[in-house]
Amino acid sequence: MRVPIEWLHVYCAPELSTAALAERLAMTGTEVERAEHHGVDGLDAFVVGRVLSAEQHPNADRLRVCTVDVGGDAPSHIVCGAPNVAAGQTVAVARPGAIMPDGTRLKQAKLRGEPSQGMILAEDEVGIGLDHDGIMVLADGDAPDGLEPGTPLAGVLPIATDVLELEITPNRPDCLAVYGVAREVHAATGATLKPPPWASDPGSAGDVEGITITVDCPQLCPRFTARAFENVTIGPSPRWLKARLMAAGQRPISNVVDITNYVMLLTGQPLHAFDLDRVSGGELTVRRAQAGEIAETLDAQTRTLDPEMVLIADADGPTSIAGVMGGARSEVQDTTTRVLMEAATWNGANIHRTSLSLGLRSEASGRFEKQLQPEQAMHAQAVATQLMIKLCGARVLPGTTDLGGPGPDPVTIRLRDARVTGLLGVGIPRARQAEILTALEFAVADADDGLDVSVPAFRRADVTREADLIEEVTRLGALETLPATLPSRHGASGRLTAEQRLRRRASDALAGQGLHEIVGWSFASPDLARRLRISDRPAVTLANPMSAELAQLRTTLLGSLLDVAQRNHARGANRLALFEAGAVYLPCAEQARPNEPFHLGVLLSGAVRPPSWREPAPPPADFFAAKGVLAGLLAALRVPWSLDTEAPEPFLHPGRAARILIGGEPHGWIGEIHPQVAAAWDRSDPPTAFELDLDAVAERVHVTRYADVTSFPEVREDLAVIVPDSVSAEQVTAVVLRAGRPLLRTAEIFDVYRDAERIGAGNVSLALRLSFRAADRTLTDDETAGQRRAITTALTEQLAGRVRDA
User: Fold this and answer.
1) CA angle 350, 352, 357 (to 5 degrees)
2) What is the pTM of this model?
3) Which runs of consecutive H residues, i.e. helices, occur in 393-459?
């Protein structure tokens, strides 16, 4: 929700800077995403001017050289390309030094050889509209004190305002309105709140003659209101209205359409304007759609509906999709003279489902799906009627169709002083509670042990119990002063659990290796499984997803790692080392909730290290680079592990992938991403990745045991052994370490040699460096020789290997 400060100050104007107001709102529960400036800057350079002459440019057919009085000692010479510029006009002028909406600072210039000391402005050049067909011609009515040359333009047109962009939670649709935010500002700051804009209603009650409206599904449409207007003149909106719409993120179209958008932003209640002469039969019916029924919406798209969706139809069929978007057949056009203004209340859950099913989200649906209240419909009708009369010259016909009427009577909730103190741990004076709730338009009456509070209609769905009232008085009257204390609990130590310590140690180990942590969505696109070639694996599908692209819960971290890598790669970051730690969600037939194991994923892409003068082209991160990161991680966690090349994942490159075994059981995978899978993320150089189940790792952590450092020397020997090519290096070192116990401490492979003539085809020679040591003595040659013989025998018997002579 974008709230222009200029518009907000019409109803509540606290004596705070924009930054201070944003902080105050954030500290009282209204999240402010950002504060920004809309329009121009350098306001002193924007003034009213009067065109004294407009002569043809000597060197350009479409330019004119204008002499403009801007209030100084001498007039300015300005070159202008607008076709409507003429002598005698009062115009808006930007002088050198003015800062335009795009941040450009205006300077003196020469255009086709003629000096130009500024710019005569069109609407779009000051951010108050989209019109660029000609310059703005000002009228005396634009300013109460007249339009003398040199008058600051900021006092004539709303050319600049700060804007607060708010993140409104779903339970507060009342704050999706400028007046609703003004109410919050009033309660948070104490600034005066003006009466609501719907306090005066030019309309009347009773049926509208010649209009028949039927609601066939009242459970999905609790209230439907309509008013008719005639003698409507379609045209552009006044500049003040266009400026507010632009600052709020809306595009001005025409006065009637702009009124519906303006009223929606002001009151929070969406409206829809029908061309009454294009409503067939003068009748509208609110009903469920038929299976396969077609409706053409205002965006010129044809939508196929189903019986769960609600539409508004006339005698010839659908005219709009209820609560989502109007229809093209009855939209207001330049020739419209009669308008039917509709403001209705819809079932929020149904509107949300319709919007998701159609892939069609609008400003209206975003409000209706949060469940507006029936009373708001007539608020919007009152404001729209005022504006239709004022801006369109319209005459409102007698009567207001009102089917459904207002909502239920207000609920009264007892707010007890003792309950407030007991829940918060501190007391809030009863008078302060009443002050806060009254400012929020709750009705308050004294009771023996507290207050009797009546909930206003616009908070009906949000405030339903005493705890909700305590939340209101707390966020505005006590939150910033509440003392920070730990909960009172016997035996609470505040220490991390073993699993939490393991997760932190894992993150620290990866960060220590130079990896950067990312945080991805827990949601995933249904298309992700297809791209990863795991479509056959079950996934948890959400019943109420935020969007069609986030309709499932993730079963692997690889998707978000690849997404982040693609985004960075598209921006020139080719060397990446990323990791993510988080839950994945695996369906479980035996229980309603899915299993949520905590996984750790790593992705390496590009060169393993930065280029240098000694190594201009470092090697790319491959399987062994990822294995090195995995080894460092599991060493830091003190977990024994091994790899198994059987049954690699379908998204990994065959022959360059393996399963990670923890305690002999597979609890992860490692490998290079299959080129065809990488291509789905626009990668020609497949990255390398691994993923590990940290919950399984936690069960296999070895307890650290410490021993004295011995002062006796170690004995180092080299051993070259020939084994079949099918034997892995890991198997060789495992056999050597077992056979050399207890004196053999380490065995490391430092060379690999192949030569069919010298060692035979299908064989490989591995050179091992052995380290023998005893804790209590210096080893003799006979002792190490015995260990060496045991190693040789084990290699021969278990791996069909032999010691290489030379």
Assistant:
1) 95
2) 0.70
3) 417-424, 430-439
